[in-house]
Structures are given as C-alpha cells and as structure tokens.
Amino acid sequence: MTGKTAEDSRKEFMELAAPHLNVMYAVALRMTADEKDAEDLVQDGLLRGFRFFHRFEQGTNMKAWLIKIMTNIFLNRVKKASRRPPLVELESIDELVEDVERDWSEVSTREAGFRELLDETVARALEELPAEYRVPVLLSAVDGFSYREIAQAMECPVGTVMSRLYRGRRMLERRLSGYAREMGFIERRGKV
Length: 192
Known about the structure:
Blueprint: H1 6-17, H2 21-32, H3 35-51, H4 62-82, H5 90-106, H6 109-117, H7 120-128, H8 131-141, H9 147-154, H10 158-183
Helix pairs in contact: 2-3, 2-4, 3-4, 4-9, 7-10, 8-10, 9-10
C-alpha cells in the first residue's frame, strides 16, 4: 500500500504555499489593517488550506486558492463582528492609527511604495468601504488580481466582482471628489 503519509502531505503543502506567504500577509494586512490580525488571518488561512489540501486541484493557482480561503475567513469574521455592538476604547484609536501606519511601513517595497502614494484621507476612505467592496478594490488595485482571480478568491461570479469593483470605485469617487479638487487633481466645476 503506497499512499502519502501525513508528513508527505505537509511537506507538499508547504512547498506549494511557502512562495505565497508574503503576498498572503500583504493582502491580510490590507484587509485587517492590523498586524496581529493579519498574522492570525494568514495562520488561519494556512491551517484551513492544509486541512482541505486534498481538495486542491494540482496545476491550478495555489496563490488564488489560499487568498480565497483567507478572504472567506475574513468576510465571515466581518459578518460575525457586525452582529455585535462595537466596543472601542478612545485611547486605543490613536494606537490603532499608529499601528496601521507602522504596519504599512514594514510591508514590502511595492506595498510601501503604494502606501506612500496614499495620504491619510485616501487610506481612510479605503478603510471605510464595506468589506464586500474594499476587498475586490484592494485585490485589483494593489495586488493586480484579474477579475477571474478575485472571483475565485471571493467565491463569487466574475460579474459580481465587476459590479462590486464598479460600486466600490464609485463610493471612493464620491468620498474623494472634494479632496481631489482641493489637491488640484481635478478642476473645480464650472472652470475650464
């Protein structure tokens, strides 16, 4: 009887998953905006990925499969948390802002470069988007995922991804139009 041992499966899983750990962490950090939560999300994603590794189809996109698992975990947590009333200590808000800014500075060069393009107003507008719109916008704009890869990660049809991207971008446009005029990125209405 020649079957894979548990150790063989673990090694195979880690060989396939290891190259994607940095991307998983960067995506998790943008989803959660918290280093500890991002680490937990990656760990939970890896554990669930290993648990269901037998369902992974060899030759398919391991990165998209792992991001899909993480995205589902994150969205489930957001839904669960939205059912509970929020408990926020006022002192922790400043610490959270500092943590988020520190976390962004520790991300890879590409992510750090992207963060430098954003100022606090833009970053806050992104963070205020509902998760169902924020996740596809970030996966598309920051990670360069295709509609199909986002659809796989979010377990929804490509049309839904396109719709959520359109709506998410429009929400950002509405939130940031005044700011864009202030900064001179677009001209004020009525002026040529």
